[in-house]
Amino acid sequence: MDRDYYLGLIKSRMGEKRYIHSVNVSKSAVELAKRYGADVEKAELAGILHDCCKEISRDEMLQIITNGGIILDATEKNSSKLWHAIAGSVYIRDELGINDEDIINAVRYHTTGREGMSLLEKVIFVADFIGAERDYEDVDIMRKKAFENLEDAMLYGLRFTIMNLSQKELTIHINAVECYNEILNKRSCLNDSL
Ligand code: DGI
Ligand code: FE
Ligand code: FE
Questions:
Q1: Domains of the chain
Q2: Ligand 1 mutation pick, 161, 163, 166, 177, max ligand atoms within 8 A of CB
Q3: Residue of 111, 154, 166, 177 with the most ligand 1 atoms within 8 Å of its CB, for mutation
Q4: What does the pLDDT look like over 23-54, one tens digit per residue?
Q5: Tens digit of pLDDT for each residue in 83-142?
């Protein structure tokens, strides 16, 4: 993997803060990949690239998405925060020529998660929450969970996101809800027993 090439590329597409975040996510992704047995090189690359379309204009994001043949659902249309992940997955496929489906999906679903995520997708989803520059209130709990049990960490991250969005009366994407439900449904206890 040409690490320096991809680092240079994302550096030219974003500000210093976002660049540092991307490098940190890639480092966390490598650590998680080692911990859980995911492909370390793919984790590093997906981490570097996951926010590669975060700081381009909304028009550009939409153009990339349309060119990639993706039709947004109603929630995606109304939530511009979701566009960078979808645009990023198209960009790395069509502009950078990355043809690894798992890396493409890890970028595409890093914001919402989805049902049936691969190990690499989970690693990137969680790494995004624990990069070294993150300093939200419960980041230490999240970091601990991330290395103890990947799905516990995902659940914690999803709860955090879903609570934040609903408090602000913002839409919650179906992929986030399905990801959240899947984790709980896999657990043996009855859902309504509490
Ligand atoms: O790109 P980052 O800032 O590193 O993090 P991210 O890709 O997880 O994006 C977080 C933003 O996306 C945050 O402002 C909340 C928003 N978001 C995450 N899940 C959903 C969502 N927005 C909507 N409307 N629905 C979701 O399910
Ligand atoms: Fe992101
Ligand atoms: Fe990110």
A1: 3-193 (1.10.3210.10)
A2: 161
A3: 111
A4: 999 999 999 999 999 999 999 999 999 999 99
A5: 999 999 999 999 999 999 999 999 999 999 999 999 999 999 999 999 999 998 999 999
Residue 109's CB is within 10 A of a number of other CB atoms, namely 24
Dist. CA 101–CA 184, nearest whole Å: 27
| Residues with a CB atom less than 6 Å from ligand 1 | 51, 54, 79, 81-82, 85, 110-112, 128, 161, 165, 170-173, 176
Say which residues have a Cβ less than 8 Å from residue 8's Cβ, sequence separation at least 6: none
Instruction: Give, using CA atoms, the residue closest to atom 16 of ligand 1.
Output: 81
